[in-house]
């Protein structure tokens, strides 16, 4: 089986961790036997912007459509180009144009990594984030200027978008511990959030076997700290999912380990996999970036491509490596990016 | 000095912890000698709604205007009345009509209380939350129905509102460690948040002695877990401040201990002090509610009324009580609400 990957390393540490994860994927292919990855590399990044005045060529997206998945590092280097341009022109553009309407982000405690909450917490949360609308709408603008300036920002929630992400969460919950928590704020945000609650209730009615609860985003954020082990699938709007997934990364032990998948549901376009961390230009080039986020992201991609067995083995290898103490500084070790990758490959070969 | 308090215990555990905090305030007055509190009690609550069809009388607000401060417990009991009605008709109504445009919420580790992050973390953050506009605007609505339904929610940010809260944060920072962190999300929310950033930059220009940084709300939420001791004053929009303050309460050890003040700046109306926790109807009547949130709220009110020395003594007494192990179950003790209050009063008398 040949898997076509479109690879965009992007900026900063994306350029360090993506090659490491590809090394791991080559070993996965080798172990599997019948699997082969063929990668097409796209140099789209903030540096590309400096040279070409755009984050990707005009026909850039058309180069990605034939791939089975997009494997992304990180985008953004504000010393070269403003974030809203780099992100809007590459990351958010692909998410939107390729209708990657769902963003899935696990917050699961890995063996061998100490949570700031202490060990063992045994939480295993899957955040299902709406990825196409809500608070991230580009609708809005300004009126007056100076001391009178007023800015309106519209959040747009559609029945289609909200029910789609909530349905996805319930389908997922059925394969897990059968519990869905909805992130709301209907006590303070009085149009969009009561609507979200209504749709949640409606969809829940079709999944009588799944337990549910609704929590306001403020309280839910606190629960990620005080009782994360009580959560299973958490479904959230674009903004709330964004916030919860960074909190999830923090309780896992480092933003450097958290993976994510941007899922296209209608089969028209490839899905895209990227770590939750950013490009961290400040640590770029030092060989200290944690490759686990990108490698765990590769595991999510394997799952998505139907290679669950290889995904399982890869996560095991990551956990065994962490347990052996070969870790980067952000999670309390003193190994380099490539040493961590080497160890994961070593564990993988011994499976 | 006579201090007129308007007291609204509200719902659930508000009815338990408010009388406890008033007991403490009486002792404060006694110790001070020259201080006297005269309280007017208002029974406005969800029960009041059941009897009268409204959360407070039509002329309710006029009964509060003559007070020096409003001392509130908690509002909301969804078994009696929907949250958006109880909150909108009492809590949010007072915040808005009385132009309590700033909400201040400390996240400070108290001696004797174990943070879920481990001890000692030594963080001491003051969250300054915009309290009147932003994401909590009531503007918005729905179009179409069924599968085509679309809901628009408007967030409204004004130059006046944003610069006011940011100025407040800088003034406060000058009295503390001279650092302000701004919560933004301008990489994803492209109208309101870049405006917020602009105003922040403009105001910062007037406070050359104060250090600043801007963090996206997702990353900042994680920093509350991974490096809270690096934060001093954090200024945030209505929604972001709401979320951060619950995270702040969680890292302090319990939502049951966090206080807050809703500050009126123009002197036209009283300010209102309330704990961050809600009415928790599920634990009401068991005598296990943590009174520390309400008592620490009384300390904030004392500071606001210019009684800094008494405020300092009261916080010391709270910390000493916690260190002596007399705590409610939410923070690992087995004492009752009144036992904790008694101990705080005992420590207070020994000062
Ligand atoms: C009850 C709710 C409307 C309120 C808010 O979001 O402001 C509460 O969460 C708070 O933080 O005081
Ligand atoms: C970079 C930013 C626009 C993005 C988002 O908020 O979606 C990031 O925080 C993420 O979570 O992938």
From TrEMBL, chains A, B:
InterPro entries: ICDH/IPMDH (IPR050501), IsoCit/isopropylmalate_DH_CS (IPR019818), IsoPropMal-DH-like_dom (IPR024084), TTC_DH (IPR011829). It catalyses: (R)-malate + NAD(+) = pyruvate + CO2 + NADH. Its EC number is 1.1.1.83. Keywords: Manganese, Metal-binding, NAD, Oxidoreductase. Gene3D superfamilies: Isopropylmalate Dehydrogenase. Residues 4-344 form the Isopropylmalate dehydrogenase-like domain. SMART domains: Iso_dh. SUPFAM superfamilies: Isocitrate/Isopropylmalate dehydrogenase-like. It is an enzyme of class 1 (oxidoreductase). It comes from the Bacteria. Its cofactor is Mn(2+); Mg(2+). Belongs to the isocitrate and isopropylmalate dehydrogenases family. This is D-malate dehydrogenase (decarboxylating).
